[in-house]
What we know:
The complex is a heterodimer. Chain A is of the alpha+beta class. Chain A has one helix spanning 8-44, and strands spanning 55-60, 70-80, 83-95, 101-104, 116-118, 123-125, 132-133, 139-141, 153-156, 159-163. Helix content of chain A is 21%, strand content 31%. In chain A, the strands form 3 sheets. A 4-stranded antiparallel sheet of chain A has the order 5-6-7-8, with no helix packed on it. In chain A, strands 1-10-9 form a 3-stranded antiparallel sheet, with no helix packed on it. By secondary structure, chain B is an all-alpha fold. Chain B has 4 domains: 32-215 and 223-343, Up-down Bundle (Cytochrome Bc1 Complex, Chain C); 367-470, Cytochrome c-like domain (Cytochrome Bc1 Complex, Chain D, domain 2), CATH 1.10.760; 472-596, Cupredoxins -  blue copper proteins (Immunoglobulin-like); 606-713, Orthogonal Bundle (Cytochrome Bc1 Complex, Chain D, domain 2), CATH 1.10.760. Chain B has a two-stranded antiparallel ribbon. In chain B, α17 packs across α19. Chain B starts with a helix and ends with a helix. At the A-B interface, β1, β2, β3 and β8 of A face α7, α8, α13, α16 and α21 of B.
Amino acid sequence: MQDKPVSEKNEQGLTERRSFLKWLIGALTAMIGLITGIPFLRVLINSAPLQKLSYVEVGDISSLSIGQPQDMNFQVRVTDAYLQQEVTRSVWVIKHSSTEMMVFSPICTHLGCHYKWNPQTRHFECPCHASVFAVDGKVIGGPAPRSLDTLPHKIENGRLYVEWKRFKVGVSDKVRV
Amino acid sequence: MNRLWKWFTDRWPYYQLRDLFLKEDIPGGASFAYTLGTSLITIFVLQAVSGILQLFYYVPTVDHAYDSVSYLRTEVPFGWLVHNMHYWGAQAMVLIVALHMMRVFIWGAYKKTPLTWFIGIGLVLTVMAISFTGAPLIWDQAGYWAGEVGSSIAGQVPLVGDLQKIILRGGEEMGQLALSRFFVFHIGVFVPFLALLVGAHVASFRTSGVGGSWNEEKQRLTGPLWPDQIFKDMVTASVVFFCLITLSVFSPVPFSGSADTLNISYVPKPEWNFLFLYQALKYFPGTLEPIGAAGVPAIFVLLLLIVPLVDRNPERNPFRRPVAMACLFAYAGAVLALTIIGYLSPGFAQIPEIKETKATEQKAAAPQVSPEVKRGEQIFRSSGCLNCHKVHGEGGSVGPELAGVTLKGKSRQWLTDQITNPRLHFPKGGPKTTMTAFSNLSKDELNDIASYLMSLTGGGNTAAEAPGGGQKNSTKEAEKGKQVFEANGCSGCHKVNGQGGSVGPELSDSTLRGKDRQWLADQITNPKSHDPNSIMPALTNLSKEQLDNLVSYLMSLTVGASSAAPSGGEGGPVAQQGQKKTAVSSEVAGLPEVPSEEKALEGPVGRAAFIIGSAENGADLYKEQCLSCHGVGGKGGLPNPGSDDGTVPPLDPIDRKLHNADVRVFAANIDKIIQHGSMPSGPHPALHMPAWGDTRSLTQEEISNLEAYILKLNGSDRGQIINPGIEPRMFFFIVAGLYVLLILIQGGIRIKKNIP
């Protein structure tokens, strides 16, 4: 296209200029990628802050028999991101006396399934990967990495109150999430 | 027209693109073995189209995802077809990907085009990722648990586990954020990525050329891709489509019920294509878990990746590559074996120690079991006694448990009488028994059964032939009381020794301790005297003697503490206070109590009526919650003295008034009763239907499953397609007819034009 012969110096200058331009294209692209990329990716890593703990009323425990695990349901209002929902939760309770009990989270410590009580074997059994827990929550079989998670609770006027928490599954330490 | 076409192709690279895709010579010519790849592309297009069609109805929210899919499947013309083909297409895709890969391995094609092989591995992983993220979108039981467990496994991977889990779930719980993410990953991330990889895959083998036949002789002759190979591809694709339609018509996806974490009668298991990983995971307990979670899949992938690197032998004929073929069979065999073991595994725990103790127990017991007892057990089982009676916890709960104390002190004669004529022990006017008279058994058989039953009592009464002869009067009373207890269906609501319903409190030591005879008698005849809000029905039809016996029985449940003598007012008030609330239900205590007035029995149709439940899970829930009153399979239940019907109404067939041809209305009719309970007509019905929904004893999802089951008992299908477009079977016949027609026409053309 160019009619005029280009001087050597000029050509060298153009080559330099063009490689500089290439560098600049790369740099600009990288900059745009960086300033948008990091916050954009951060959007995906959104872990909600730990919810505030409070005791929730689970129910009356006077009718429970001693030493017999029982699952008790209770209603709580929870916020799931932007949804306000009335949710039914359950806990496993074992009464030792009218003032002492054990409250287990219903979530298997292995991978988060809900386990069942087997009255024949008197064990808690998880249907997902066959973890087995003794009545005191200790692991006696299967892949579960730790005992069943106990939940803090208190008894007032014969009624049970539980502090609902979730713990990380699949690890040997009880880490609240 | 031609000029217009030329104008267009001058300005747009139509021919170049066509040649890029279709101009290819295949060494050795076309073959049906090479058709799997194009089948996959065809299925991919099907999945994309059926997926987009579903998006016109689907909403990715936890409260409506399941219902929106149900609506699409039942009320949108051909919605059933779109959903089922999407489901079966997904299954076919995974299967054909595996077959395609095996084909490429056997033909040694990866030797010619290693890059294509590597991109192929990326495709396999992406297909698995799409399969994994697709299942939870329905937010049914199967999908919810697949998502919950799958993302927990992703969370176990060392180092990046937590990050992976957070990216997948958007938080800690499997909630709305998790569903949104599965949705976007499924349609917005992995699918475009898959399309990209497919493009790269095709471009890669166009560049390096296709492998073709392994036979060097044959390789000299080539055949064109278009139309020779594409024709064969199309034939295979047509067969695949026909299979998908057939499966969609005759094996539609079952409704597994809306996601519900509280329903623990559901046993989660992964989709079949993840079963091998599920099974492998079981071999890594405790701290080894991360190895199972990350290591096993990594090894499976790594083995695929190293194939072109390790196998540098240019030989492609499988018959001259024994080692490679052995590796293939070992790999495929391992996956297949793990899948089958995983499929057959019961899900539930089997701990070795317990098996051993059971075995030793049985061994220890074995020498003592006489042949009579053994024969008796066989007759007992084959006669269906277990439908109603439990023996050591196994069996139905209509009749009493036969192992342990129930039959203690009963003579051989008493037992044979009870079997051949149960009414003999239930005098007229008193409580009735629903037990069938087994009059067709021979004398020997009866003797054997009696021996067996006597062996269940723990060996106490074999010698004592006189009924209750040596026992104390009070025990005898308690024994009679137990019969009264069972005949009146008390166990429908109350547990005793862990057996029975869970509407009322368990009647054991702790609940009854400190109560005196008068208190118990009052509670039975007029429960409102102790708690005005009690939902317990008043048993006013009992005779004085029956009441006395029942009270004696209840007293016998406490460990001898309160005895027959009235213990005075001291324990009374305190205990009464405890009793006050438990009358509602131990399970639902703490919730707003149900007013016991009649109006509580009426109310609006609940949410459950609009959920299409799982009849299969409903059957399990029925056994746990309803069978004790309504009987096995809803065939008819316990006697209900004081009601006009005299028994708890059967559910199969259910009251005609509840029937409706529209399954939605039918479900709604049943729903009202399950939600709010009902009071049978009659002077003083002893039993009434508890308000399962109002008391939140069952979740709405569980109620929807029960409704599906009850509809099924009555010959209706809750998941019935209301607006099919064309009835599925009819549609199938039309499709099949078209296929046959096309085959005939092409056959005719061939004969006429003499085309080989």
